[in-house]
Write the structure tokens for this entry.
Amino acid sequence: MPHKHPMEARKHVKSWHGRLTAQADSATEALLASLDVDAALWRYDIAGSLAHAQMLREEGLLTAADLAKIRRGLRAMEKSIAAGRLAMPVELEDIHMVIEAELVRRVGDAGRKLHTGRSRNDQIALDLRLWARDAADDLTAGIVTLQKAFIALAKARGDVIFPTYTHLQRAWPVVLGHALLAYVEMLQRDAERLADARKRINVCPLGAGAVAGTTLPIDRARTAELLGFPQFSRNSIDAVSDRDFLAELCFACSMLAVHLSRWAEDWIIYSSGEFGLLELHDAFCTSSSMMPQKKNADTLELIRGKSAGCIAQLTGLLTLIKALPLAYNRDLQDDKRFAFEAVGMMKQVLAVAPGIVRTVTIKPPDLADGYLDATALAEYLVGKGVPFRTAHGIVGKIVAQAERQDLALADLPIETLQKHSKKIGTDVYRHLGAKNVVKRYRPDGAGGAKQLALQLRHWKRLLG
Amino acid sequence: MPHKHPMEARKHVKSWHGRLTAQADSATEALLASLDVDAALWRYDIAGSLAHAQMLREEGLLTAADLAKIRRGLRAMEKSIAAGRLAMPVELEDIHMVIEAELVRRVGDAGRKLHTGRSRNDQIALDLRLWARDAADDLTAGIVTLQKAFIALAKARGDVIFPTYTHLQRAWPVVLGHALLAYVEMLQRDAERLADARKRINVCPLGAGAVAGTTLPIDRARTAELLGFPQFSRNSIDAVSDRDFLAELCFACSMLAVHLSRWAEDWIIYSSGEFGLLELHDAFCTSSSMMPQKKNADTLELIRGKSAGCIAQLTGLLTLIKALPLAYNRDLQDDKRFAFEAVGMMKQVLAVAPGIVRTVTIKPPDLADGYLDATALAEYLVGKGVPFRTAHGIVGKIVAQAERQDLALADLPIETLQKHSKKIGTDVYRHLGAKNVVKRYRPDGAGGAKQLALQLRHWKRLLG
Amino acid sequence: MPHKHPMEARKHVKSWHGRLTAQADSATEALLASLDVDAALWRYDIAGSLAHAQMLREEGLLTAADLAKIRRGLRAMEKSIAAGRLAMPVELEDIHMVIEAELVRRVGDAGRKLHTGRSRNDQIALDLRLWARDAADDLTAGIVTLQKAFIALAKARGDVIFPTYTHLQRAWPVVLGHALLAYVEMLQRDAERLADARKRINVCPLGAGAVAGTTLPIDRARTAELLGFPQFSRNSIDAVSDRDFLAELCFACSMLAVHLSRWAEDWIIYSSGEFGLLELHDAFCTSSSMMPQKKNADTLELIRGKSAGCIAQLTGLLTLIKALPLAYNRDLQDDKRFAFEAVGMMKQVLAVAPGIVRTVTIKPPDLADGYLDATALAEYLVGKGVPFRTAHGIVGKIVAQAERQDLALADLPIETLQKHSKKIGTDVYRHLGAKNVVKRYRPDGAGGAKQLALQLRHWKRLLG
Amino acid sequence: MPHKHPMEARKHVKSWHGRLTAQADSATEALLASLDVDAALWRYDIAGSLAHAQMLREEGLLTAADLAKIRRGLRAMEKSIAAGRLAMPVELEDIHMVIEAELVRRVGDAGRKLHTGRSRNDQIALDLRLWARDAADDLTAGIVTLQKAFIALAKARGDVIFPTYTHLQRAWPVVLGHALLAYVEMLQRDAERLADARKRINVCPLGAGAVAGTTLPIDRARTAELLGFPQFSRNSIDAVSDRDFLAELCFACSMLAVHLSRWAEDWIIYSSGEFGLLELHDAFCTSSSMMPQKKNADTLELIRGKSAGCIAQLTGLLTLIKALPLAYNRDLQDDKRFAFEAVGMMKQVLAVAPGIVRTVTIKPPDLADGYLDATALAEYLVGKGVPFRTAHGIVGKIVAQAERQDLALADLPIETLQKHSKKIGTDVYRHLGAKNVVKRYRPDGAGGAKQLALQLRHWKRLLG
């Protein structure tokens, strides 16, 4: 008996078999299938169908018996899928068709009515928005947890005097808490961006159908309400074309990832033998398969690297959408690959980062090096009436001399200092040295203990 | 007389000449200089300095005479620069130093006091935020203008029945206004994103100094107020490191650019000889240097291409910041190249796009092709009690038959239709044909005239 | 009985347990693990270990018995893994450690000697190069198959006269074969780029150890030879840091993907109802879940979209490596995600694309529209001594007039033509009309049948 | 007198004024114009026109007198443009039209014949290829200069014993020359990639016309020969669509930029106060406007940042081309922005980098820290018959103990060592310490003096 041509095999499984006669071969089926990715949406797909079915019943498009069957069928399937017991044949292409086909198998004609007034185009838009809403919430929770870890460390060890760096050269001294709260600021903007994105995520597209709505009397306000959306989309064409909300989520992830990469870079450098400003807990390090002495900050390096992954997903998603004619095109099938990957990476990273912060050991830094007090000396001269730009030049020369003698500024005798400026008095020594500098910070937001206390109060109020 | 080594030339011009002894050669100076780009910030730099000087005076760090000189000097320089009469020597590196050096040249020691309690690190952050605030406002205004052009066209020609496309194949018919308002929706989200970004732009970094503030008694609230900022930054390290606001602006531009690329793609295709749905005004087309018959939609193609430019700037800026240790690093000098380019492209495009919309000619489409009424026929069967999935299959076969006979659905005799389903009655002809379909749309947001009227009312309320 | 702290669990499984005392929790283990991705390298990892072991034996670093055990063990494991019967516990992190740990479990101390003179740093570099070499070969084979499909179509239907487009407006007529061979040219460059990349892939890093080689007497030339590498790396630091070969592969994939996206865009447009230049086989189309009339070019849309995926991977990989200090850093663990994804997408697409080409139906185009002969008319005038720029202007006006009258150029009476230029004689009609134009192409590489024959001969010679 | 509508102004200046009647307003003209960018191509444009004109004469399409006029005109214009004395009115859009219009103005009808058998589509492709060929050569020369600077330093200071790092933690000791030559390897691959790209750049597109060639008897081999191209393009459609060569150039620049970013990162870290491994010459550093003590590695930071710029250009160019239908579309006008920017950045950076290398001061590192000899100790144990994995575990414990006692391995008494393994004898001290380790490297490519000598010999042979 002859084999069927592969293109003729597996007929009639597709929702649209009426129109087309040949079937795809397996490579084509693999390309067309998004099941490997969109299966993750199954909970959202079922939730959407339950709301849609209830509305259809309320509008008289389903009988009470139909609705009961659909509900029973979908709820049973929830259990099957959760238990990994529902087959997902790749020729069904996507999670929507897997679920509809199984529903029809289980409950017959009632299942065939579920897609009334609906298209996969608005259905996938709905599933993605439900997913994205949860993703934004999960990421926000993860961000807050990480912020709290930094804040707790800022409280516990905040008063250690620590160098800051610009250009990786020592700049001014600050209290450590101030340095740690810089990361909390970054994270706060990430949380705010997610909150802003969430507003635009939280719009119900259901009822837009394939592109233009439907001639059937459906109630869009009702499905939106059942699914917890405060509003539904105003224009059906836009509703099925719009993937801004995923791009915005990818951007929020990218910015977050970039922030985390800066923190990771800082702490990788700080935990080098040469900087020695902190030591990571062994649980977040690995060693080498060849070099037995190594203790490497691998988790931080992986976190740093994830920024590249998120930027890539963002670039990819925007490029995917670029120049796509309205409305839906199949290119958009890959939107999920980008968005799921970006969100997944950030969730993974946020699950690890707080532990790194909570278990780090701060090592008391040597503050004698780096002339951390040089600008304070210039500002001392300003207090004595020297124009700042002139004072800056004077101190530049004092530093150059101190460097040649390998001395700290506070170790220079008053005569030496006075050779550079007559305005310098012996009170200058109360301005020199990192400790003195940190005490003298004046404006809000500067690197002293007083300013730290204010910041901690703010975060207490905001994050509890 | 021997030439000086180039590295020894041009001494003493830099703000920081006290510390370093050698000078850069010309290639190095070119690399270090950002003047070619940041000169564009001069108005913001002067505005910031005026506010800073006034605050310094109020805090007693300048005399009244100093302030008067600084003001006079800066205001005179505003005129010089606006007139293109201020030299900008590349060895001064950036606009801040050009302005400070010239001020010192003009007013002497008072000028040397201007940088009191300030660093280029917080100064450039300030300039960029002032620029970005204006950029967001300009872009928003441009978006609104474009939205209004679409809305005006939707009012004027909105009732023309027009095909929609998914996968570039005809889908459902709609009133043209509905298709046009899809672009307005996209643009509205762009405007909202800019408004959200603006909140995070609108924070005054001045007073953060180089990285840790200052030991001098400056009043950050006052400078913020003078410059129209509702708040100032909470953490000095973050304040000089943060470029989120530029990345967010680049993202908003990218999303906008992607939207415009979709519109451009649509209209390029629609204006092809084959689609023939619209014709662009000659003013927005060019011809060919070789082929005399050509009328090409070049402006739309350029608009489409700018999406690549914006995505590139966004990718570049995020990559620039990736893994940068805190706080300021010179890599950030190039932040402006990315942000200025993205914003500049979008301003340029928004200056042209409304004209394209205002002058377009809509050509009455032939709606007989493409079976735009097929789904309506399936929904007709749903009304007769056929489950949608079954109805979909029936209509698929009807379409296949009509296609073989090269007939529209409405041209099929009732007997042919009834061979496929006994449920079809002669009332079906009131459901077939694009015009009938458009009349029957039911839910809000669908493609009919009633729904268009609702949308237009919304935009009237929102945009006036 | 109390549970152990998760950080204390699963001790002693890591290769490097001597140095560090705490263990990672499960989120950290998940972050550290690359097994989900690098398990795909198992064949290459085992092949590399077999070669390494043989060399170690030849250098006296293993006994004959050790080698025999290692070989037996690794070969048995090949079967286990191929059959999916080897557990891959995530706490072992990567495929190297899974294999080494299992080998030790199976053959004891001989297994503990396998890592002599080797590090995971050179081992993963080796595995990736072996993989990349195969990837380049597989992609090249796929490209050739696709080229041949285009060439076969160019032979079969090459003489159909077809419009070309610039700016999506009709330009000149050509024989269809010429239009098809443009894609073959693009693909040829892709194949050449892969061949160039392969030279730089094909270098053996083994022996570079962790970063500086080893103090043990290993023979790098021997392992290179055993693994089919014509050369080994010259510098150990570079050998473990270098991921250029993956970036180059990603670039080759991106360029290929962009080429395919242009072809896909062409054929999506050509298969629209409006253009109607070709029809795709049903096997490569899908329909709609809602709209029963639809036949959508989904496979081409997915192919088009994969360009975004490849560009994203390239961007991501370059960004990952950006600013990484030498030599190995754990960020590089994610190199595989980018490279595997890009190569995987292109292999998938190349498995489908030839079928689309082989089964397409070309539809005879209507060539009366679009003034495809306008430039030929200008060149006719050049033949009569009119300067080209002048002739271009004359024909521009003739076209404008013909358009107003809705006539083709060949339909204009001679009097009308002569009103525009006295140089036009009745012989002009042998120059007008797409067929006449195509016959008159002169230089090599132009769009006529003669030029097509030359191109086909070239490809015959090159690809067989 | 009424003003003309801006769209009606400036008529008749365009090459194609015959066809279209309205004119663009100034915003539209600015969008359409590429003169701000493509003016840089003027030399190439004139060179191409000279070759084209000569061929036209040889084919009888120009008279000798025409050719003489065209030559005289173009050569005079070369001088005008070089002297900045040729107006470039934006309404002429591009450099091709500026030159042709001026030529016509200067020499009349002969100028009107220059565009015979040519289109801007093949003309710009030609100009870009001529430019790209020079760009590849310039970049290659810059790379070689930088390689030589590293090699000279490797010769001069190559024997200093230097730490290597993996994960920014100390790994093995090497001779400094070995560490420096790692950068030379990277750069060599960059040069090779440019050479490969050059093959694909070096193809003459002239004669492809707008898209399909021409009906006039032009000689493509002749123009190719006159312009130094070894071959001309085989397919006219591909010839005007292809921008691979620019993308490949952008990729080569990106990879180079990423390499330079890694070097910059290394040296920024090495020149920090904490690492103190090297000191940059003042000429390549700047200080701070506020902090007088700073000496920052600004040039290296800018070099590091340029990697983001290049990656952005590459991403942008690929995204620009993505899904463009064949053949030419105006989107491609922006190809130059990406390519010029990427090449320009790399040329700028390569002009500075060699000076940084030539003037750097190497500071003798303290090698006592970091257990650089730990793996050598494990390999010592291998020599005593201990399986490597076992030896690795033993040394891990020895290092942990040494760390607790804050001792180097060589400072541990033999009894301590022997407690960990009986195999350790007193000969172990000849294996411990960085100096001993470096002496013992065995395989080619490892970090010792012997291997360095081999590498230097190789580079001497290759680069002279």
